[in-house]
Design brief:
With about 700 residues, the protein is α/β, with parallel strands linked by helices. The chain is built from 20 helices and 25 strands.
Length: about 700
């Protein structure tokens, strides 16, 4: 069965049996406490391992006129039915002395109530059948869960990999189910067996007899489960032990009936399912019941999104030139796609919103924006599992395919957005396909990442879309670090912050610091430099906007919460580097610049240079001021340094660009002209080679 089939089975069983599993888990949690209580109530004491049964039998003959039966429960309580010297009825005995002791305290009403509800829902036989079916459903939920779990882990080798907690219900569901999968299977299987055994009378007791079993004088009391004493002389003494039932007459073994395998299995299943007589098993059952309650809760929270039918029908999309195609496992990617769809509708842009499994036989010219998540270890999400095998057929009749891919994932997973990358490569291989929107990713459902992508979409497609960020329900990251401001310098248009950094932290120049403004859950990103000498973190901030003004309000000694986002695509490569920046885009280069590199920086005023001039000592720096005498921009500097740029690239060096998108546009025009004149590859090819790195906003 494919992953999609296992997923449907899992959802179906959860929808049908979820309420009864919730009921069974709740009552199971209460009943798991009972063994601890009954152990405290035990009155017979611990049995001496060397004490023989006939020693107790002799004591009973002294103290009772007649004894009819003896039973020993799972807690060691010895109960007899008989006629005593002063009274008759039910008595409890001390295990070692044989003296009569007080009866255990009665079981609390809550346990009896929970037991009846757990076993039969107070419906007697129909209820027992229903709870048996619930055990069956829970067993197959566990099996289908294992199949989905293996798919998520990328196979058996990945089952022990840690599960990053990105989405609470989904990831905690996977985490706790993996941790308790064996107890859950045992609970479900034992419950199912006990239900079947009750109605089908599995494995009747063996009638095979044997005369090779122990003598009466050899039987130890600790091995005895029950005894039926003879009333008439010709009746046998029947002693039941773990191995079977022995019949004795006048102290001699008459017959032995071995206990059937099914009886042992029944007893084992009962102990595993109830924890009777075993506090460790009861503890595991209690914890498993708690986990099952959480799994049921989190499953119900995820179920509506999993079962919700989204997107347009096939008839609706045939005449649409613009399509948003969504590949999603848990439904979170749909939230972003629906937000994009609302923005398009608000601008009267005709389009269709569909799942990737709804894409069929595209004809004519289509523009398709793929918003796709990655499942597990680089796998396709649930509604895109078959897309790869059908992609050529889907677009076989398309005259032109214009596309863009936006990947959703988490950098906490090694295969970050792996499926989105694979999908992009497949689309590029299609005849007459053209990528109209650069490939981007959204990390941890970041609203700010998504908004930046929409801004790029506006430029590429000449749209004017505005995203309602509140509708995306942004969540503030739970694990934030505290950072302290060590030093602050500022001028009107530039703020310099030196921030204390744990020296054991592996943070590099080029990484990003994500900061939340007060009372907002959408983070803002700032490029990081690590001071080569002090190893402090350096931020350069333009004090405009809510978050930047918040940082500007801080003073030395103040602390704020944020988190570091790794940005390996903008780490300094080996060899000499030509660095190009404008404004605060110079920030990461303050921690990268060495005498073998060259820096071109465009800023507005000389005072901005003066604020950070100490980082430029003994460095090859070229600066222009757009608001002073020269009124030149950084691309103007580049056009005068054709030989230097050519030399860097021909010596296997690299170019890094950081700053505004408007600067990037002017810079790439100049660079492309230089590359053409020098016989060098164009920017697109150099980016593929990893020799031009860009981080612009």
């Amino acid at each position: 069965m494919k992953g999609k089939g296992w997923r449907k089975l899992h959802y179906l069983l959860a929808a049908v049996a979820g309420f009864f599993i919730l009921l069974a888990s709740g009552t199971g949690l209460i009943l798991s406490i009972e063994p601890f209580v009954l152990h405290q109530y035990a009155v017979s004491g611990e049995i001496d391992k060397n004490l023989k049964f006939n020693e107790l039998q002799n004591k009973l003959q002294e103290d009772f006129l007649e004894v009819f039966s003896l039973e020993k429960d799972s807690y060691g309580n010895i109960k007899i039915e008989g006629i005593g010297l002063e009274a008759d009825g039910t008595f409890f005995l001390s295990a070692n002395s044989g003296e009569i002791v007080e009866a255990p305290q009665p079981v609390a009403t809550v346990f009896n109530f929970s037991r009846d509800l757990h076993r039969s829902l107070f419906l007697k036989t129909p209820g027992r059948v229903l709870m048996g079916i619930t055990s069956f459903a829970m067993l197959f939920l566990a099996i289908s869960g294992i199949a989905l779990w293996l798919k998520r882990a990328g196979g058996v080798r990945g089952v022990l990999k840690s599960i990053p907690i990105i989405e609470f219900n989904r990831d905690r569901h996977a985490y706790w189910s993996r941790l308790f999968i064996l107890p859950i299977i045992f609970i479900a299987a034992s419950g199912l067996y006990l239900s079947i055994d009750r109605f089908a009378e599995l494995g009747k007791e063996s009638t095979t007899s044997s005369k090779t079993r122990p003598l009466l004088s050899d039987i130890k009391l600790k091995d005895v489960d029950a005894v039926v004493f003879p009333v008439m002389e010709e009746e046998p003494l029947i002693i039941e032990t773990k191995s079977g039932a022995a019949h004795y007459v006048n102290g001699e073994l008459l017959e032995f009936y071995p206990k059937a395998t099914s009886a042992n299995l029944r007893k084992w299943s009962f102990m595993v399912h109830t924890g009777e007589g075993s506090r460790p098993i009861a503890l595991i059952l209690g914890l498993s019941s708690l986990v099952l309650l959480f799994l049921t809760y989190s499953g119900f929270r995820m179920l509506p999104a999993a079962l919700k039918k989204r997107g347009n029908s096939q008839e609706d999309i045939e005449n649409k030139d613009l399509i948003i195609a969504v590949g999603s496992e848990t439904g979170h990617t749909w939230r972003f796609a629906e937000s994009l769809s609302k923005s398009l509708s608000a601008c009267d842009i005709d389009h269709a919103l569909i799942g990737m499994d709804q894409l069929k036989n595209c004809k004519g010219e289509k523009t398709i924006l793929f918003l796709v998540s990655t499942y597990g270890d680089g796998e396709a999400p649930g509604n895109a599992e078959d897309f790869e095998s059908k992609i050529q057929d889907i677009f076989a009749e398309a005259e032109r395919l214009n596309f863009g891919v936006l990947g959703f994932g988490s950098t906490d997973y090694p295969a970050y957005c792996a499926y989105a990358k694979e999908l992009r490569n497949q689309l590029l291989s299609i005849k007459n396909s053209r990528e109209v929107m650069p490939y981007e990713t959204v990390n941890n459902r970041s609203v700010s990442d998504f908004v930046e992508w929409v801004k790029g979409l506006n430029k590429s497609m000449n749209y004017q879309l505005k995203i309602d960020t509140a509708a995306l329900n942004p969540e503030r990251r739970k694990q934030l670090s505290s950072f302290e401001v060590l030093d602050k310098k500022e001028i009107t248009e530039l703020l310099f912050l030196r921030i204390d950094l744990d020296k054991s932290s592996y943070v590099r120049s080029g990484d990003l610091l994500a900061v939340y403004p007060p009372d907002e859950n959408i983070e803002r990103y700032y490029s990081i430099a690590i001071d080569p000498e002090t190893k402090d973190m350096i931020l350069l901030v333009k004090p405009t906007g809510l978050c930047s003004n918040y940082l500007a309000s801080l003073s030395a000694g103040d602390k704020f919460e944020a988190f570091v986002k790794r940005n390996p695509s903008f780490y300094k490569p080996e060899g000499s580097v030509l660095m190009i920046a404008n404004g605060t885009g110079i920030a990461p280069f303050l921690g990268m610049l060495t005498p073998s590199d060259s820096l071109f920086w465009g800023c507005k005023y000389r005072r901005q240079h003066d604020l950070i001039h100490s980082f430029f000592e003994n460095q090859n720096v070229n600066i222009t001021y757009s608001k002073e005498a020269s009124k030149a921009h950084v691309q103007d500097l580049l056009s005068e340094e054709k030989n230097m740029i050519e030399k860097v690239l021909k010596s296997n060096g690299s170019i890094m660009i950081c700053g505004s998108l408007s600067m990037l546009k002017g810079t790439t025009e100049v660079l492309n002209q230089i590359f053409t004149e020098s016989g060098l590859p164009d920017i697109r090819e150099l980016k593929k080679q990893g020799r031009i790195l860009i981080d612009c906003y």
